[in-house]
Design a protein that fits this description.
The complex is a heterodimer of chains A (260) and B (322). By secondary structure, chain A is of the alpha/beta class. Chain A has 7 helices and 17 strands. In chain B, the strands form 2 sheets. In chain B, strands 1, 2, 3, 4, 8, 9, 10, 11 and 12 form a 9-stranded mixed sheet that branches. A 3-stranded antiparallel sheet of chain B has the order 5-7-6, with helices on one face. The chains are: A alpha/beta (260), B alpha/beta (322).
């Protein structure tokens, strides 16, 4: 994977994603985290500025504390329960989303479109399926019921005009189409990539760049996007990962199973 | 719409009434328990992903050459790869199906789905749970608020329905109840009657036990009824729902059983390697070596190797170290 250079140290694209995503969280929030970059980001936020942030795992865990070097292989193994406040059935932890106890959902993505819809089911669509992907898991529930952050590599084949299949709904066809489809709450909030951080236009719900990673140009971002990307009126430059943020990530994942 | 999507209530009640629900011992062998599962039935698999998977019971079903089962599970992993490869099932209902994020997308799942050799019927994770729960509490459907606006619902055709709430008028999903013919659940301990205690993550297993028309428990330890009665607050599955109890130490290997053993990671890495290289030959070789050839479950564990067994146990028990 690409090595990025900053003034202080080098870091991988996964580490860049984790650091930028962590900075989007707020102390005191309750966050539904997937495995990999999402979990690393939430744990990083806890360590640095959000000690009262609560992680939920869809395997049925409230408030786990991750043991460095023992990152869980999925959200369903015993490593997810270490020092947790509660374990509960899968259905009940997911129902916390529906009841409204979850501030943010956070996951990775295989394919995303202009309106923040995610495909993790079929590359090529169900009829002419080129690749059958693992499917929704809790992704559809999380994206249907709360505000979402997605972290993924910024590539043209992943950022497409229209996803082949909506596994996890974003703003669907833009405007008020999400609410009209029966999803009055939540929605895609931020997309974090190795090139930029994106939000969605208040009315049209189209994806727009709100910050660029340091050293990245607008052309570079557009060239790696499969649709015409909007830029917000004010576009910031993201601060590169700090040494202490990278140190925490290395401490959590010393074998680089999720950050290589 | 799928035929008989929801079991008629009269049938559900009659089936339950016909079961022997008295306080009786029901301990048997894996082979005897496999005889309680018939070709073509809907079998729900307990646990989730690589955790508390009733591997030994599935192993017995593959050895008994069961066919055409309809399989449902919260999240499917390598156990379902093997069920496809062994021809035990061609239809899996689940929310997510792959070995696990760190191993990439399962080539075995891809081979069967992309070549249309089997069906992966996809519902969201919460929807799977609420379908089992509707089955568990004896109602034909449960309302919910996800899956709308997505193509996951579109792909389900007439099995996916919405309705207007009779109180508020808003649109909600009507998730059809799942009442599996058989639920297979592995637990840490239970008594000969089937009173089962589960440590750690429960997943969807309690609803599975309540929803199913038959329940087969495999257990790490068979304990006395007196033992259970000392801590009845720890009992998660009551004997009245249970039809068979099989004592199988390491019954989830090479997957995990909370507090007893973690996944056999080196073995799972090797499994990923051979099935990624060749999903057909890789799984057939694996089945031959670990499923068909061993003389017994103990023999299968020997094939996994003592080093791996002890390493998985050391890591598994570590949750109680601090």
């Amino acid at each position: 994977m690409t090595k990025h250079q900053s003034s202080t140290s080098t870091f991988t694209a996964s580490e860049l994603l984790a650091v930028n995503a962590a900075r989007l969280m707020t102390d005191g929030q309750t966050v539904f985290a997937g495995i990999g970059v999402p979990l690393l980001a939430a744990t990083l936020a806890q360590h640095h500025f959000a000690p009262h942030l609560t992680i939920l795992f869809e395997g049925g865990v409230i408030g786990p504390r991750i043991v460095p070097g023992e990152l869980p292989p999925s959200t369903n193994e015993q490593r997810c329960t270490r020092h947790a406040a509660m374990v509960l059935p899968i259905t009940d932890v997911l129902l916390l989303l529906q009841r409204g106890y979850v501030d943010l959902g956070f996951m990775g993505g295989a394919q995303i479109d202009r309106y923040g819809n995610l495909n993790s089911s079929f590359i090529g669509g169900p009829q002419n399926c080129a690749v059958r992907l693992p499917g929704t898991g809790g992704g559809n529930d999380i994206s249907s019921l709360t505000n979402m952050i997605v972290a993924m590599k910024h590539e043209k084949r992943r950022f497409v005009e229209k996803v082949d299949f909506i596994t996890s709904p974003g703003w669907i066809r833009g405007g008020d189409s999400r609410a009209k489809s029966g999803l009055p709450q939540g929605g895609m909030w931020r997309v974090v990539t190795d090139l930029a951080v994106m939000g969605f236009h208040e009315e049209t719900r189209e994806m727009q760049v709100i910050a660029m990673q340091a050293g990245v140009t607008r052309e570079q971002i557009q060239d790696n996007t499969g649709f015409k990307l909007r830029f917000a009126d004010k576009v910031e430059i993201a601060e590169p990962p700090r040494k202490e943020e990278l140190d925490t990530l290395h401490h959590l994942d010393p074998d680089r199973r999720f950050t290589s | 719409m799928t035929k008989d999507l929801v079991t008629p209530y009269a049938t559900l009640r009659a089936d339950t009434l016909a079961r022997d629900r008295g306080l009786r011992e029901k301990v048997m062998s894996l082979e005897e328990a496999a005889g309680l599962v018939h070709d073509g039935e809907h079998v729900a698999i307990g646990g989730c992903h690589m955790s508390r998977t009733p591997i030994a019971m599935l192993w017995a079903l593959m050895r008994a050459r069961r066919q055409d089962l309809m399989v449902s599970r919260s999240i499917a992993s390598t156990e379902s790869d093997l069920l496809l490869a062994a021809g035990t099932t061609k239809h899996i209902i689940t929310s997510w199906f792959s070995q696990g994020l760190i191993w990439g997308v399962s080539k075995v799942m891809r081979h069967h789905m992309e070549n249309k050799l089997a069906r992966f019927e996809e519902w969201s994770h919460m929807s799977m749970g609420l379908r089992y729960r509707a089955g568990a509490i004896g109602i034909p459907f449960t309302p919910s608020r996800s899956m709308m606006g997505s193509d996951v619902s579109g792909e389900l055709g007439a099995d996916f329905k919405t309705l207007a709430c009779p109180f508020t008028g808003e649109t909600v999903v009507a998730l059809p109840a799942l009442n599996p013919d058989v639920a297979l659940i592995h637990v840490q301990r239970c008594d000969p009657y089937g009173n089962a205690q589960i440590d750690g993550l429960q997943f969807m297993d309690i609803d599975l036990a309540m929803a199913a028309k038959r329940v087969i428990l495999t257990t790490e330890r068979l304990v006395s009824n007196e033992y259970i009665r000392r801590t009845p607050d720890q009992t998660r599955i009551p004997f009245i729902t249970v039809d068979a109890v099989v004592e199988v130490p390491m019954g989830c290997a090479p997957h995990e059983c909370y507090g007893a053993y973690e996944p056999f990671f080196a073995h799972m890495d090797a499994y990923a390697d051979i099935t990624t290289k060749d999903p057909v030959k890789g799984t057939q070789d694996y089945l031959e070596r670990y499923v068909y050839a061993p003389k017994s479950w103990t023999d299968m564990l020997s094939e996994l190797g003592m080093d791996d067994v002890l390493d998985a146990c050391r890591r598994g028990r570590s949750v109680y170290n601090d």
